[in-house]
What we know:
The complex is a heterodimer. In chain A, helix 14 packs across helix 16 (387-397). Chain A is elongated, with a radius of gyration of 38 Å. In chain A, a hairpin with a 5-residue loop joins strand 8 (222-228) and strand 9 (234-242). Chain A is 36% helix and 21% strand. Chain A has 2 domains: 65-252, Penicillin-binding protein 2a (Domain 2), CATH 3.90.1310; 256-293 and 318-619, 3-Layer(aba) Sandwich (Beta-lactamase). Chain A is built from 23 helices and 23 strands. By secondary structure, chain A is α+β, with helices and mostly antiparallel strands. Chain B is mainly alpha-helical. Chain B has one domain (4-358). Chain B is 70% helix and 2% strand. Chain B is built from 16 helices and 2 strands. Chain B has helices at residues 4-7, 12-33, 41-61, 64-69, 71-88, 108-126, 134-152, 157-161, 164-174, 178-199, 202-212, 221-234, 246-249, 261-294, 298-322, 340-358, and strands at 99-101, 104-106. Chain B has a two-stranded antiparallel ribbon with strand order 1-2. The interface between A and B is large, with 50 and 55 residues.
Amino acid sequence: MAWDYRNTKDFKDYYEERRLQRRIAVVFVLLAAALLFYLFNLWYLQVVNQENYRRLADNNRLRQVVLNPLRGTIMDRERRVIVRNRISFNVLLDREKVTNLGVSVRTLSRVLHLAPETIEERIARYRNRPRFEPVIVKEDVDLAEAAYLESRRLELPEISVAIEPKRSYDEGELAAHTLGYVGEISETQLGHSRYAGYQLGDVIGKAGLERYYDADLSGEKGWKRVIVNSLGREMREVPAGKRPTPGNALRLTVDLDLQRELEDAFVDKTGSAVFLDPDSGEILAIISKPAFDPNVFARRFSAEDWNQLIQSEAHPLQNRAIQSKFAPGSVFKIVVAVAALESGRATAAWTHFCPGYAYHYGRKFLCHLEGGHGTVAMVEAIKLSCNVYFYQLGRDLGIDLISRYAHELGFGGKTGIDLANEEAGTVPDEDWKRRTRNEPWWPGETISVSIGQGALEVTPIQMAVFASAIANGGVFYRPHLLKGREIRDGVEEAEHPPEVLRQIRLKPSTWSVIREAMWRVVNQGGTGTRAAIPGRDVCGKTGTAQVVKASAGVKSEHLAESIRDNAWFIGFAPREHSRIAFAVFVERGGHGGEAAAPIAQRVMLKFFEKLDRGKEPEQVARAPKLP
Amino acid sequence: MLERRSFLNIDWLLAFSVLTLGVVGVGMVYSATYGGPFTDRAFKQLLYLVIGLVVMVLAMAIDYHTLAELNVVFYGASLLMLGYLLLFGRAIANTRGWLELGPVNFQPAEMTKITTLLALSAFLAARRGPALGLFNMAGILGLVGLPVLLIALQPDLGTAITFLPMVAVAAFLGGIRIRTILILVLIPILALPMLWNHYLKDYQKTRILTFLEPTRDPKGAGYQVIQSKIAVGSGGLTGKGFLEGTQGQLNFLPAQHTDFIFALLAEERGFVGSMVVLSLYFIVIYRCVAIARAARDRLGVFLAMGMLALFSCQVLINLAVVVGLLPTTGVPLPLMSYGGSSLITTLAGMGLVLNVWMRRLVN
């Protein structure tokens, strides 16, 4: 043994022992100081800064979850639901509860009729997501599949069915453009102030009424707070929050019966039509064809489907009622007649001889009737739609006078309908020609405009509002689709009153000439006899517009024969105290009297049938509300 | 050997503080694992505490002089185990620190702390002369350096570093000269760049860099320190209550039953709880110093002060990490952190200190 410790009991050197004791004390003081320093640190963290750290801890554990409100339903004027929210079922796979992935995948594959590879690929997409987040295996499965899986929860604890509300357009393509559709908000929309408070993934109205009244329909979001753990899993709810407020239901001016009749009449046709109440501007039926099924947008649909929709030659997404711009054709003769009568350049008694053609500014302009109409006065000229008569009348008036009255009668400007992206159309004049084409007005163009051709462009909604103004004696109501809002479960209804935009005052004689002429068009062997309904005194005017926009002065006869003309028919009924006004437009339909007038007749028959039954829309009992 | 009279001389204050810290530790391990998959850990920790107490009593019972005489055996056995680990140890989480003996797994590095302490104290106690020269320092560094090197190679730098304060205190008390200190300080400073470039692992570099700039990696290494500070700070004055700490119970706090157990305590028990625990640690430190001063010979002084160095430096490093003053080091909080090897070793060391007190009077 090298050392004997028991002999070291005494410190040989007193100095050395004192130094040792001193150094022990130094170590103690250092350690005590360090502990004191820590105590100070803890005091600083826990007492001085506790609010700050408590907030940080709350930021960690509390997460705000947005509760989406149910979108408001859309009903017709008799409160029949057209657009509602249906319950859809999504099949979820909880990866944490999976015991044998192969078995789970095989079961899902069998029940959902999906290839196992598809399911595996969907699961793989969640690779980087927290494990507790369920995989959406299939969206919007049918009830049978959902029920099958739901009844086997005990055997398949990892598979669950989640409910999600989806927009449902029960009538399919009916009034598709008017109703519009919903979809997830786009990145550009997110940047817009109108969509403040929205976030990615939110469903908004993308077109039509869904878009125009999105603020009404979307309701108010609610929120709740949940406590989450470090992985983001919800542990429990905090008893605070706000329930979402469901969106307001919209009650439309549209009458589903008339709309269905109009849809049936338009099957296989391209074009559009608007029927409205001349005493309020309420739109009773409105159509644009070809249409699409808005339900497609409520699902997640493929890029192929989307491309097919937007690349189609027929432009099914375009709402023709407010966006298609075509020459009004002979319908415009009414405008020229009004201009002549009101300006005093001509009276209804003024006559003109129609030999079937006329020369103006060195060119030959044809009438549609070979051999001509002979000598005609104004009422007969409108009834027979004599071109030669109106060539001369237009020439006498000049383009600026025609343009002024066209604007007064609602052309060349938006009608103000409650839908986005309405087109204004074009009413040309000398100034317009200079501005847009930097060319002087060529007198021959006036001749074309006189019969509704040339650079003139009108929309079906403008034509319907025009017909309505003639019917009611010059009042321009804002055409509208919203009759009222039902705020929260139909408790409170906010009426959407008619709005008079302006009124034009014409001489009583002018009104009577125009109405007489339009009555004769339908009832006295004019061009629109196929719209006649006995006892209803239907008034109307046909129009046939060239498909290929003819440059000024080029006659339609010079165009390729394979291109059929567009058919217009506008009008109202009855002649006095009109109840309905309309414009029907059939693209490539041929003559207005043949293609468009029967459609108007069919819808009016339905309208008067309902009227006769005394079935005033407002008195109809409310349809039961659907979720 | 085990005189009745000596047992009446137990430093009850030290024993009480140590035991209380151990019990508080079991409670916090319970809270840390509550509702999780490892709820048995609190019970295990209690078991380790009981085993540790038995070991502590054993370390008290045998005269420390007898233990010091056997230091070569203990020290040698420790080195053998560390060497065995390096050659045959199975790597767990990239380090070979665990010795597997049937159902019992333990970290020889922990018990090496005590055997090295014994060897170092014996070496210093036997030395004569007024001051430590370079030759003696070389002896001290060799004695401690050998196990440190073996542990650092596992690699377990955190545990290896905890040996160094023992050297510092031993040298200081042994009577080191100022010029020796200077040389010893200069060498590490010069060696630092080499250490950085050739020895430190990437994760260790990341820890240091993240410490210097915590926002560097908020979700990575810096995340732990940030979450720990949030836990401590949000505890406030009186805490959120037992099992009510949101940072702990919702698992935002990392390693909450081991290295960050104090953060959990601070969150659930607040500044009051922190202060109580800190006071208990202070009592342990104070009693170790008192025992060293009362020791009957140099061996007793070095044992008590060496143990104090080992113990207090781990406490200080661990707490520094918890309050965000140091990067994550992997040093557990003695007596409280979950882990049998550390707890039992600490209790054994405290047994030695109590041993010195018990036999302070010459008989």
